Amino acid sequence: MNTNALTLARSRTLAFDALGDPTRRAIFERVAERPSAVVDLAAGLPVSRPAVSQHLKVLKEAGLVRDVPSGTRRIYSLDPEGLADLRDYLDRFWNTALASFKARVEAGPSRTRAHAAPAASTAKTARQTRRSAP
Fold first, then answer.
1. 53-85 residue pLDDT tens
2. DSSP code of 2?
3. Would the pTM count as exceeding 0.85?
4. 72 φ, ψ to 5°?
5. What is the DSSP string of 82-102?
């Protein structure tokens, strides 16, 4: 694996790890709604402003958010580059899933019926067994 690919893999790991924490994910979702300062993000969360700042630091290190100074505050917003890398990674799986779905649909209904037939005969056998039971 080349150095660039290794760096990209590490940044993805950081991003997924960062989003694995429920509080951090809630903060990330709030930032996704609109750019905000720490005080605004902390409102309504069960953690302190310093804790929100620490969570934002992790999100920033993971490349998911960025900040810009605005007077005495820092305004946090999503980092499009970090999100693009994460999306590119997830799109590979999505594209594979779509290709599999397309292949299944193009295979036609006979393949789908073949999978459904055993379930139908099993249900029929179960009904017959219940009727004949004392």
1. 999 999 999 999 999 999 999 999 999 998 998
2. -
3. no
4. -90, 0
5. HHHHHHHHHHHHHHHHHHHHH
